[in-house]
Design a protein that fits this description.
- This protein is α/β, with parallel strands linked by helices.
- Helix content is about 35%, strand content about 15%.
- It folds into two domains: about 230 residues, FAD/NAD(P)-binding domain (3-Layer(bba) Sandwich), CATH 3.50.50.60; about 200 residues, no CATH class.
- It binds 3-acetylpyridine adenine dinucleotide (N01).
- 3-acetylpyridine adenine dinucleotide binds next to helix 6.
């Protein structure tokens, strides 16, 4: 049998923050590589989610790449929490800075990826009819990349303009003077709503679940802060590489009831005024574990919301009925204030559900409201959505979507048995916290595995059954220790019919890093490395 020709050693699918880094790492390691991306530009999440006021809610310099001090030095983020246009510019800069663009093909969506048992290669077909053969396939397709539309009757009958936050057009949408509806009040909806309210003739917000929104507290990065960031690069990198959450925020040192009520109030005030996720990562140590401590924080936030929102009925609708942290908390700028505008109204879908979308607008149990534009801020098919839609078939022609019919089974959120030479850094079971930090660890690990296989002369890499079982058991066993409730999309429960399984990594980054460290120390013993039948035959 002849050895198998491949177009590239490594084919990366997805040109977001993870795919770009993976492409850079494998090229640097001496593999031939290409990247294909469905969008007409790079950026992934930060290409598609280009709605007004889309922005980081992790600090810009903690979300960005840390692999190159020169890159860190030359890119001056303008704000502590950068907005989408700056993020997209940054990712394009990285692509050019590291000469990656010539390896990238845009506007090509994968429709099928087939593993050849004999050849040990992947044949990947895209919607333009092109086939690419690669030894290794890396699906850097993201956790939040398949927009979810609820099955509302008549959705396609609407005669005005409709948009999904996760599929925002590259041409600006003109809201000026329009009657606009926004459905959904997750992190996307609450970023977009104040921006639309500033220009639309009217804005109606359809809310099913109120969320605990706290201020993002964004501001420009001052020249002194820019200098300090550069001077502190090594210590920032060290903190981010060793922190459980992947943030710079310092964990607090005591529980809520170790303080007096007055001290607690002052502490919560400080939290409210602190940046982004520090309300979770630097709050009282028991805020997510002791319901009484959580209640104290929620009472404080209710006080804040009540002081901002004038109308008592609207205010009551905006107060969540779940604990802080049971759902991923959004961070906002001027969100609650928006509801004081006379042109903005809030429809509570728990009391008046949507019956249908008509040609003219949205009909709820209390009547029809007419609109020019409807925005669906209704989230994503989280975690497995993209991988399950790529037409991936592994050993013996088994389909990934069938293998994962009851939920995913993975090792480190990076590989799964039955699908040799397939890697999916940034995939389900990997993350909890600041995503690029986890995904970066995974990309480095994948690169290490590939280099190791090359060194030992193997061309087929497959995770052992035992290793996958260990990791998946850990995820399923400890899922109940996560603060997130089963109604959170982290369990996939926002998508009707999807199995309710925990899709994050409840062991957090420490578990990911310690497992990776052990795997490397043990010479990647969790993998079965072999030679493909084609290669073995050609050696005879
Ligand atoms: O999506 P979501 P998202 N009828 O799933 C509602 C990241 N992100 O795009 O909660 C009516 O959070 C749904 O209601 P309910 C971040 O990780 C980051 O906002 O299911 N409503 C909810 O209100 C985030 O968590 C940033 O009851 C329906 C909304 O739609 C993740 O992306 C910015 C409905 C969906 O909220 C997803 O956020 C933006 C129905 N049938 C996003 N179905 C940063 O700042 C769903 N909804 C970095």
């Amino acid at each position: 049998m002849e050895p198998v020709d491949v177009d590239v050693d490594v084919l990366v699918v997805g040109g977001g923050i993870v795919g770009i880094y993976q492409l850079h790492r494998v090229l640097e390691a001496g593999f031939t590589a290409a990247l294909i991306e469905a969008g007409n530009g790079v950026g992934g999440t930060w290409y598609w989610n280009r709605y007004p006021q889309a922005r980081f809610d992790s600090e810009s310099y903690t979300y960005a790449y840390l692999f190159s001090e020169e890159l860190f030095d030359e890119w001056e983020w303008q704000e502590h929490f950068a907005a989408q246009p700056e993020i997209e510019r940054y990712l394009n800069h990285v692509v050019d800075r590291f000469d990656l663009r010539r390896h990238i093909r845009l506007g090509a969506r994968v429709t099928a990826a087939r593993f050849g048992d004999e050849t040990g290669t992947w044949t990947v077909r895209t919607d333009d009819g092109t086939e690419t053969r690669a030894r290794f396939l890396v699906a850097a397709t993201g956790l939040l990349s398949v927009p979810f539309y609820p099955a509302v009757p008549g959705r396609d009958d609407f005669g005005g303009e409709s948009y999904h936050t996760g599929l925002w057009p590259t041409e600006p949408v003109d809201f000026a003077g329009k009657r606009v509806a926004v459905i959904g009040t997750g992190s996307s909806g609450v970023q977009l709503i104040p921006a639309i309210a500033d220009v639309a003739a009217s804005l109606t917000v359809y809310q099913r679940t109120a969320n605990w929104c706290t201020p993002l507290n964004n501001r420009p990065i001052t020249p002194d802060e820019q200098s300090a960031l550069r001077a502190d690069f090594e210590s920032i990198r060290h903190t981010l590489y060793t922190s459980a959450s992947g943030f710079l925020h310092v964990p607090h040192d005591r529980g809520a009831f170790e303080d007096t009520p007055e001290e607690r109030l002052a502490f919560f005030e400080g939290m409210w005024n602190s940046p982004g996720f520090s309300k979770m990562t630097s709050n009282y140590t028991d805020i997510l574990t002791d319901p009484a401590a959580n209640d104290e924080w929620c009472r404080f936030m209710i006080g804040k919301i009540s002081a901002i929102v004038d109308d008592p009925e609207t205010r009551a609708k905006l107060i969540p009925d779940h604990r802080y942290g049971q759902r991923r908390p959004p961070f906002v700028t001027g969100y609650y204030e928006t509801f004081n505008k006379p042109t903005v109204s809030l429809v509570d879908l728990k009391t008046t559900p949507i019956l249908q979308v008509t040609h003219d607008g949205i009909e709820t149990a209390d009547g029809l409201r007419e609109f020019d534009i409807i925005v669906w801020a209704t989230g994503f098919d989280f975690g497995t959505g993209a991988l399950n839609r790529m037409g991936i078939t592994g050993r013996g022609g088994i389909a990934l979507v069938d293998e994962w019919a009851d939920g995913p089974s993975t090792y480190l959120g990076v590989v799964c048995r039955g699908f040799p030479n397939l890697f999916f850094p940034g995939g389900p079971h990997g993350a909890t916290g600041n995503n690029p930090r986890y995904a970066g660890d995974q990309v480095d690990f994948v690169t290490g595995v590939l280099v190791h296989a090359r060194e030992v002369g193997a061309d087929v890499i497959e995770v052992s059954e035992a290793a996958e079982e260990r990791w998946s058991d850990m995820v399923n066993t400890y899922a109940s220790t996560s603060p997130f409730s089963e109604s959170s999309y982290f369990f996939g429960s926002n998508v009707p019919g999807k199995p309710v399984r925990y899709l994050l990594n409840p062991g957090g980054r420490p578990k990911l890093l310690s497992t990776i460290a052990r795997a490397v120390r043990d010479g990647y013993g969790d993998f079965e490395l072999s030679r493909s039948p084609a290669r073995t035959g050609s050696d005879r």
